[in-house]
Amino acid sequence: MATEKYDITGMTCAACSAAVERSVKRVPGVESVTVNLLTNSMRVTYDERQVSAAEIIEAVAGAGYGAALKSDPGAKAAAGADSAENPLLGEAEEMRQRLAVSLLFMIPLMYISMGAMFNWPLPAFVTGRENAVSFAFLQFLLSIPVVFINRKFFTVGFKTLFKGQPNMDSLIAIGSGAALFYGILAIFRMSHGLGVGDWELVYRYHHDLYFESAAMILTLITVGKFLEARSKGKTSEAIKRLLDLAPKMARVVRNGAEELIPVELVEVGDIISIKPGDSLPVDGVVIEGHSFVDESALTGESIPVEKQVGDRVSTATINQGGAFKFRATHVGADTTLAKIIALVEDASATKAPIARLADKISAVFVPIVIAIAVVATAGWLIAGASFEFALSMGITVLVISCPCALGLATPVAIMVGTGRGAEKGILVKSAEALEILHQVHTIVLDKTGTLTEGKPRVTDLVLFSASSEEEFLAIARALEKNSEHPLAMAIMTYAGERNIPEKEITGFKAVAGKGVEGYIDGVLYAAGNEKYINKKGVATEAVAEWVERFSREGKTPLYFAQDQSLLGVIAVSDVPKPTSRQAVERFKEMGIKVVMLTGDNQKTAEAVRSHLGIDEVIAEVLPQEKEEKIRELQQGGRRVAMIGDGINDAPALARADVGIAIGAGTDVAIEAADVVLVKNDLMDAVGAIELSRATIRNIKQNLFWAFFYNSLGIPLAAGLFYPAFGIRLMPMMGAAAMSLSSFFVVTNSLRLRRFQPSVAKTSPAGEGERREETRTRVTPAQIYNNNGGVEMEKVIKIEGMSCNHCKMRVEKVLNALEGVQAEVDLAENSARVTLAKDVSDEILKQVVEEAGYEVVAIEKA
């Protein structure tokens, strides 16, 4: 099966898109068809062995429309395509020109036709009954340019009508055409009256010409189309802004020299040189230098991210400070930016299940409206009304009916919603996923990498016979530096951050799954689990109470000994992400049950569940069993969303009603998911559900308006309220109402551009709890936090900070002080510092003021 996207021309309403879908679906070998009225595009999945792209294009032409294979959005991003190529903006410009010409002739036409009514001065050759034909013929001449500039309504409208698939243009063409035809007929009748001296005949048709109605209908419809096209152009601004991010040139290092080349000529393996302020042209890996990169365009994260050798960098991110070089790994349509643009466009081109009701109605809407117009005209004639009155009713029914509003109700909201999500780092792959998300009852979370950071971190130190923390960590670092175990890496990272000196070790020996040992300065040291250390003759009862506590909290204890003497214990854990607890709480507030699905043991899983407030935990699940557990949770008709990041999550992501992949996860997980979170932040999953609810609410508002408008407008136009209340609509008023209906739907959808997802609080609950659990000092054995001692927290009030650079600068100078950990809150103009050693207020004040800021006060937290 192949899937292709096509650009469709000539569509103006939901009936058009329905006609194209029906025509293409009839082609043998076509599996599925989705037509998007907003983007004038079509997505077709078909069997290449049975049908070709040319036959599909021919089928579209057979329905009365044009089609061509769509260009690749990824290629446009890679080439730094100019946003001026936006077809929606081109449509708006065309409508603007048509409107200008229409108004140029319609205004004098209205003046001539209405002048006698308001006693306005008129040329002598068009006044009086003896000049009735001149009066009518001048109006006819003024209406011709309006009809000509808007001839598309007639060419498309009658073509689709004759093919048995009438659309909105057919209604306009019949309505305005009938008015125009009646005016021409009136000219002939008046000419006859003047010729035979029948002044009563001349008087009857003198002011019932309808040329101004035909021109006004076409002009008002064009006004509505212009406003609609301009608003629709705004719906694609998310994609436009993404395209604008792509730089057009790249500074490539070749043969030892830098040269500026078009970005489309960059190849995988090229070395790219980046200067301060540069926008990165392709994806790659840093090979030289160090800097901070603003990734907000792709992730929505406002704080620049540090990049050094080995780190990945992405297209369209902006280098903030230093210079660096990176090797290109993904270019053209394979870059992160190109994939994001493709995802957004694909989602906009898909159809939500809620749109199917509108599609079914649109398929029969126009024929029914034509029938109502005929019945209304005939009914008033039978009731004794004049032909002019009955014709006016029929024309009004035709021009007030608005299948456009039905057709635009869903795709506009989907496009704006998915575009806004992309700006916030939430990539929704399909409209169906966006709709299902708001119905989710249960959300299943993988533990490692989703709820937790995905890598072990030292959380606690227990010193028993070790003389000091520094000495203890130096021994631990020496023992673990030759091990490749993740827990050993955590200890190495922890010791490295504290600049603990390395000791030489000899006779190193590792026992897989148990521990390590070796000689430092001729003394035997060992590290490992409790069984391994006990086997060495080391007693561990003295720290049993604390080890039991660590076990309850899901932490892994590592014992360290010198000969047969216990030095201490280091607790290591894969800690929850700072925002995980907030995300769980927010899910529960939305009425969603939270389930954790993990392969970890029950005790560790329970510790995480208790810590984060999760409703249910399913532990010790093998990778192949995760999909079965999702299926079990779906029993009873419950909608289940799965959030994961690993290869082992892919089957579960595919099985869930909606699969959500953390962006930092594997390509396999991202491929299997329906929603991709660019940032590695669980709060974005909350944002995805909020976005879904806001978008579906908006679609329901649009559909309600479209149904309400047509349900009220058509009976009113047909004159049902005229006998009882004397209320009737003229054709011009019907055309104005029809135009405003579509404009209302598009404008209402544009409100989604103001959507803001929930964000983590300045001091996340999860982070605060993490500080508490890692900063405790307990005896009889000495339990040190990861700062090495008793702590005190202070709040420094600071004036002069205005941006993230200020924030990072203040944090840098404070964290450079030994025993100080600082976190700056820009909103509060303060820094919260945790002191593991006695650091005076004078020193804290001095370093902040030397950095260029004013300290107003220092208080205990």
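That was protein one. Protein two is written in the same sequence-then-structure order:
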Amino acid sequence: MTLGKKIRLFVFLFIVPLMLGAGAGGYLALERGVPSLDELKHYRTAPSTKIYADDDVLIGELKLQKGKYVPLEKVPEHLINAVVAVEDSNFWKHSGIDYLAIARAAFKDILSRHLKEGGSTITQQLAKITFLTPEKTLKRKLREIVLAMKIEKNLTKQEILELYLNRVYFGHGAYGVEMASRVYFGKSVSEITLPEAALLAGLLKAPSTYSPFNDIKRAKDRQKIVLRRMEEEGYISRKLRLEAEKTSIYLSRARRNKGEYNYFIGYVRKYLEEKYGADAIYKGGLRVYTTLDRHAQMEAQRALREGLRAIDKRRGFRGPIGHRNLDEEKAHDEGAFRSMPPNVGDIVTGVVLSVKKRVAEIKTNGIKGTLSLEDAAWASNVFDTKTQTTKKIKWFNLKKILKPGDVIKVKVKSIEGGKAEFALEQEPEVQGALVAVDPNSGFIRALVGGYDYSKSEYNRALYAKRQVGSAFKPIIYAVALKNGFTPASIIVDEPVTYENGPDNIWTPKNYDEEFHGPTRLRDALAYSRNVVTVKIVDEIGIGRVIDFATAIGINRKDIPRNLSIALGSLSITPLELTMCYTVFANGGMKMKPIGVKYVTDRRGRVLENNAPEGIRVLDPQTAFLITSMMKDVVNYGTGWRVRALGRPVAGKTGTTNDYRDAWFLGYTTDLVAGVWVGFDDPRPLGEEETGSRAASPIWLDFMRAVSDNTEPRDFPVPEGIVTRLIDPETGLLANRWTVNAVLEYFKAGTEPRESSPTIWEIREPENILFY
């Protein structure tokens, strides 16, 4: 039996009875779940919610209509024909449903045992993008059919097409034909040519896959398919098709919104939806004034991206991202897409034209250039994605990793005389988040939830609950300082075993797997000593630690009630942990995190006004002592890398088992910032990828960029703090024989009264040797 006969039999046996059944009771039930068409007819008039940064500059809009609406008469006929030919050739004939297409798709679904075939008409696609969720389920498909029927009954074909062309997504943030034309070609849709129209129509099936900015060859192949369909449907002649295929298309350089604000806008949208509901947001014309610092946000995004690329390179080169036949590549040069040469600093996709040991010739958008061995040196480490291991290439040269036709990512280092110099790059798999908060107000100044919003909208700053490791230790040490300890208190770093540990019998170890004997609390925090910290928790009590952690903003349910909390076994989000550190930076005051300052309605009436709001959860003296101790984390401890900021900084690193998470939380007097780095599926970042190595450089890069124009200030010393010279070996007052005495801070009344014993007091006089 032929495929055609099988399809007809399938339609007769399954589809027809299904339609008859749906037409009886099922249709009425499904129709009750389909919205009114009034919303579709009038959605253009709904005023958008506008979102402004802290300096009142517009950074985003929340609206039903994305892009710029254009009437159908301003859309070129060849674009309309291209879309109809490739998306729904029976559009002008059917009544909203193409039953043969549905049957064909359903038959293929049954053969493959998956719901993957579309079979949707333009009317069904309009129904889906206007009202319905995109999941591929039978119920969704049936409701889509019902809504498509309602649309066809109430709207003309021209109205349907106009709505569709103004709402459909074309990739790179472009909704609707007008926005798409400007993104891809830098001009209005009314000006586009037949070859350009065919390119746009080809994007609809899979915008990311067929984007010329992502893959020129695929985009060209898809354009040819659209042109052939137009010829087959009688919209153009063979001669016109061939001419269009050979015509060069010039792409716009300013094609992509980099999306620096998108993660923050997502945070604001969630806040507004929970408080006002979707109708008020998308139809109410709200004006939302936020706390975002635009400069800080852009620098946060840049620093995170560059830092994640550096980490990914240390893991090793994963190989080319594709391969092309260079003979076919030359054939594509005729009628190829042309674009303005990239800017210095851009990361673009390139094709390897030739390779020698020390240099490779690369072609990318509108320009050729060279890649030197030195600019690909990091790829001497090759990462095997199957075994998740890194291998070092001996006697490394470019011919060992590249061959002609390979497709790679490169960064434009320079352009001179029409020739470029490139550096080898690759898209990182590792993810991260960065949050920056003003500790004095709780205002969120920057919030970045991932490497690239266009590739992953998941906001890790808000939703990624990850183990915090040693970044939790300052919270523990603050409890210790509230309960009789001082920065000079001595605890012996030695082997110890507990019966109430995370695995019953538990012997904690330090990161370096060594023990360091008598250790001051200040040094224990600076060097992140695990054993000392576990001893502290055991002595002050787990309950006290949990109570204080809850008081500064951590959900009690997220905290394990065993000694493992000494090593940061709890999992919280980057925003939550950053807000915890604002308590120390703000003298013990816990501020409410604020992203939205105030909201007005369309008439300018204030709906809410969020002033800074804080409560005291820690005395100023303890907050200062923890800040002082975390300054030494930076001065000589695990946070040494951020000393390069050149101003007073307090901070703490955090690393979890097997290097699955890397943290750095730190602050100056004006800004608290937290950085998390890790994979979405918790797997090791790589050997030695600690918080110090992986996270603190990102923090440093960001803080350098946002602190350049501010005067360095040290943390103020509150009343009730005294200083004493102490013996660093004993924590007691220094005597005149003490070598390397240090100045230590204490709460008034907790300073040591006793002097450190002299050598005369420790040894019998006859045993003292003189030199």
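Confidence is low (pLDDT under 50) at residues 110-118, 767-771. Keep this in mind for the problem set.
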